[in-house]
């Protein structure tokens, strides 16, 4: 506030300080007056004081005289709290000071506020609040308590005196106010936030202070545990009849409050350790009676929220064993309608959260899986049960491998009933595939995979059959077809596509399940060549069947974005694998399939993105056919870009096409300069320059990354060296245009990278930038030549600047701001767009053919600008 910019205002205000203090002091002295206007005057005095307090806070170097004068008026404000007429303004001011400017208050002020909460007035206010009075003034009282607790939280943690304990007890009592949290109880969430702050501060105090006497730790920890014992029951869901009356805001707020409680429990575990798990394990067991379903849901939710705290830790296994070997599973299996669905869902999810426990305690695994499969028929439980099955089977696959046949038989019975939704089916198939992946015998493994795929083939055939029907009847018996029923299906006419997507998503689930576990060591430096798959082998037969389904379904639904996305995801599931498998297709087959896609293919940009991932997977191959695959993909990608009416016509394709080429040249620069690719390469360079001059942020960022990579290339042959020499001036012009005004401020950081690489790696960078700054397209009439020279000098220093000093974009923006380079060049940019468009259709041959290069580069640049 007292900066040079506002110095005049600051001086005027400081001259008024004595008068303002005198007026406010007089206003507070009128408190004893019987004049009816005295209350109005005192209200205005408190409002005026509030403004002066915030003024003192905003003064960059605090005015001690002003602060001292204002502090003298705090005590009357505290006293005004007990006056109903003045309460609202006083409580608002004090709460804001405690929350945002606590250093303003002195020890005497804090003593007065703490003493106030010991009075009869405070006791009456507090009782009204916790008994369900959530009027505005009552909630303000609770917020004042919380603000005081927040500002003195460390003192409260270290305090073992009676008054501190009483105040902490009152703060804990705010957690147990009458009414449902959020919907009725408006103080629960603020109180919960205080206790989260209390626990986090307690943790910091415990681990940051030197070893010694810490008698306060046990007292503070006991306060936390008492708060936890209060709060866990408050997050139990109300009866369905009550919940139905809540609006969406109350529902979302209650859900957020439950998450806040989970966060509080996780923070508390840092202080208490395993005993907290034991506490909620015991509460879960105590809530198994038929009439305690609400407490059971809350206890299991809290126990589940602590799962991440004990991952891989066997210290809590005894407590967990007591829960999972209790009658809980039998109760879930037989309770049916007697137990609320939400309670059953939370209990089922508990199994998934503690999947690592079942890895250690294998004797509990069969009972858990039997329970999960038994409740799949319940629509409310199918989702969480399938998710838990997937987690258990994935984490315990080696233990369950011998039971693969039993899993397949179990699923066969489930599939015959056609009761599961598609997501649950996808998860269960993924779970069974994970178990099959651990089967050691290859022949047995292929038998199991073939059997599992037969369910997918059935869905694919059903989809094709339904598509061939003249019309679909809403009644399954009407068509004589076993129609799949899924809650996500709306219009029966969408059933063919729905079944096709189900088949493809099941393939996704199987592909992910068959992936090697993430904890298996892998040698990144090895060059392991996956042997070619014989089409007549069992593996080749499986791959042929999968590819046949993919091709048929894509042809049947050629306009579906979801079909395209699912197919790409299926391919991706095999890219990360280092061993042969049903979804590790031969590179040539993947390449052929991708390059068959045309601009009319839905989400063609996503197919190109899949090709980017495919490039990375080629690291597992020896150099044999890799070059051929890379070249074929490159020609396909650039041809797709060439077929677009405008560079930004398909943003996704533009971005991924440039990223593909960038990834390719970063691995194998020579791939871009093969003789048979040169015409396409020339087109791509001009295309990438146009994108860099464009407006779409994502393709533009990809183009900036590409040019940064390109400028950092080490010339391996004359062609690369010549291409850099010819493209450098064009790139410099594009970058300077962006700096001049085309790019937004947020894009400058990304655009600085190619400029930095140019300056650091190319000897001719200064000449290129000089030409760009003096180019007729640059508005030189608004920027003097010496300013351009200073700007260029700053830029050329980048190569010696420390990388950690500032980000490139920040440095670039600083230079631009100082030299007034942020000029509007949109008009001049579009004046040159026509010549660029002609370059797209007929790329200049001189770029990559040295023998056709004009003898004078400057003359060539001038001719382009003239054009």
Automatic annotation (TrEMBL):
Q: What is the name listed in the Swiss-Prot or TrEMBL entry for this protein?
A: Importin 13
Q: Which family does it belong to?
A: Belongs to the importin beta family.
Q: Origin, by domain of life?
A: Eukaryota
Q: Which organism is it from?
A: Colletotrichum lupini
Q: Which residues form a coiled coil?
A: none
Q: Mind listing the GO biological process terms from this record? A: protein import into nucleus
* Cellular component GO terms held in the UniProt record: cytoplasm; nucleus
Which InterPro entries does the UniProt record give? Answer: ARM-like, ARM-type_fold, Importin_beta-like_NTR
**Main localization, broad class:** nucleus
PANTHER family from the xrefs? IMPORTIN-13, TRANSPORTIN 3 AND IMPORTIN 13
Name the keywords, alphabetized.
Nucleus, Transport
């Amino acid at each position: 506030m007292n900066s040079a910019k506002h110095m005049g205002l600051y001086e005027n205000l400081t001259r008024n300080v004595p008068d303002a203090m005198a007026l406010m002091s007089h206003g507070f002295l009128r408190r004893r007056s019987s004049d009816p206007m005295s209350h109005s005057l005192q209200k205005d005095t408190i409002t005026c004081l509030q403004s002066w307090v915030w003024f003192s806070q905003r003064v960059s170097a605090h005015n001690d005289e002003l602060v001292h004068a204002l502090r003298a008026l705090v005590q009357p404000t505290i006293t005004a709290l007990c006056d109903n007429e003045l309460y609202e303004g006083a409580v608002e001011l004090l709460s804001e000071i405690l929350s945002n400017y606590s250093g303003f208050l002195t020890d005497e002020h804090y003593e007065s506020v703490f003493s106030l909460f010991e009075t009869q007035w405070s006791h009456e206010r507090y009782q009204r609040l916790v008994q369900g009075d959530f009027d505005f003034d009552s909630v303000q009282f609770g917020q004042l308590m919380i603000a005081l607790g927040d500002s003195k939280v460390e003192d409260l943690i270290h305090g073992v005196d009676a008054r501190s304990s009483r105040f902490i007890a009152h703060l804990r009592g705010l957690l147990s106010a009458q009414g449902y949290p959020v919907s009725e109880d408006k103080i629960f969430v603020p109180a919960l936030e205080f206790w989260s702050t209390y626990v986090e501060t307690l943790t910091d105090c415990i681990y940051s202070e030197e070893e010694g006497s810490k008698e306060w730790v046990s007292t503070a920890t006991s306060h936390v545990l008492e708060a936890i014992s209060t709060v866990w029951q408050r997050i139990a869901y109300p009866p369905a009849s009550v919940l139905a009356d809540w609006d969406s805001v109350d529902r979302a707020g209650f859900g957020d409050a439950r998450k806040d409680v989970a966060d509080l429990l996780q923070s508390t575990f840092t202080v208490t350790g395993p005993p907290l798990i034991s506490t909620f394990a015991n509460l879960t067991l105590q809530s198994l009676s038929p009439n305690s379903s609400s407490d059971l849901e809350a206890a299991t939710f809290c126990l589940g929220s602590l799962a991440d705290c004990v991952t891989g830790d066997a210290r809590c296994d005894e407590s967990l064993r007591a829960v999972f070997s209790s009658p809980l599973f039998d109760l879930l299996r037989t309770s049916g309608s007697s137990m609320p669905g939400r309670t059953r869902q939370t209990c089922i999810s508990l199994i998934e959260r503690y999947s690592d426990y079942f890895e250690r305690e294998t004797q509990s695994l069969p009972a858990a899986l039997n329970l999960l499969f038994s409740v799949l028929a319940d629509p409310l439980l199918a989702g969480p049960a399938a998710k838990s099955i997937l987690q258990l089977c994935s984490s315990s696959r080696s233990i369950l491998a011998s039971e693969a046949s039993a899993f397949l038989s179990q699923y066969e019975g489930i599939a015959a009933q056609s009761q599961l939704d598609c997501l649950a089916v996808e998860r269960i198939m993924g779970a069974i595939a994970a178990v099959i992946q651990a089967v050691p015998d290859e022949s047995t493994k292929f038998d199991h995979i073939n059997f599992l795929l037969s369910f997918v083939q059935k869905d694919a055939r059903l989809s094709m059959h339904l598509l061939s029907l003249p019309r679909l009847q809403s009644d399954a018996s009407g068509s004589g077809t076993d129609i799949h029923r899924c809650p996500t299906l709306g219009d029966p006419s969408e059933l063919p596509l729905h079944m096709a997507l189900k088949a493809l998503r099941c393939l996704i689930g199987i592909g992910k399940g068959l992936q090697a576990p993430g904890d298996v060591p892998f040698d990144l430096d090895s060059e392991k060549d996956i042997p070619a798959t014989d089409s007549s082998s069992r593996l080749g037969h499986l791959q042929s069947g999968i590819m046949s389904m993919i091709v048929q379904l894509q042809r049947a639904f050629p306009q579906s974005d979801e079909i395209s996305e699912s197919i790409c995801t299926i391919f991706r599931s095999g890219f990360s694998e280092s061993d042969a498998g049903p979804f590790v297709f031969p590179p040539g087959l993947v390449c052929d399939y991708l390059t068959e896609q045309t601009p009319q293919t839905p989400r063609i940009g996503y197919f190109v993105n899949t090709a980017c991932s495919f490039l990375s997977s080629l690291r597992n191959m020896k150099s044999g056919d890799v070059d051929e695959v890379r070249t074929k993909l490159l020609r396909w990608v650039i041809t797709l870009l060439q077929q677009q009416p405008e560079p930004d016509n398909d943003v996704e394709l533009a971005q991924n096409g440039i990223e593909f080429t960038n990834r390719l040249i970063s691995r194998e620069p020579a791939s871009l300069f093969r003789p048979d690719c040169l015409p396409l390469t020339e087109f791509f360079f001009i295309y990438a320059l146009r994108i860099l001059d464009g407006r779409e942020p994502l393709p533009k960022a990809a183009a900036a990354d590409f040019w940064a990579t390109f400028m950092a290339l080490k010339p391996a042959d004359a062609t690369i060296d010549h291409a850099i020499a010819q493209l450098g001036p064009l790139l410099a012009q594009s970058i300077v245009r962006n700096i001049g005004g085309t790019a937004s401020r947020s894009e400058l950081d990304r655009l600085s990278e190619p400029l930095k690489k140019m300056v650091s790696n190319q000897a001719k960078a200064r000449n290129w930038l000089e030409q760009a700054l003096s180019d007729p397209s640059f508005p030189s009439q608004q920027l003097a030549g010496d300013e351009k020279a200073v700007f260029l000098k700053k830029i050329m220093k980048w190569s010696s600047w420390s990388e950690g000093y500032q980000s490139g974009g920040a440095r670039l923006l600083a230079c631009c701001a100082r030299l007034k380079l942020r000029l509007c060049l949109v008009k001049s940019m579009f004046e040159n767009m026509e010549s660029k468009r002609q370059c797209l259709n007929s790329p200049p041959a001189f770029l990559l053919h040295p023998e056709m290069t004009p003898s004078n580069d400057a003359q060539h640049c001038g001719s382009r600008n003239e054009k």
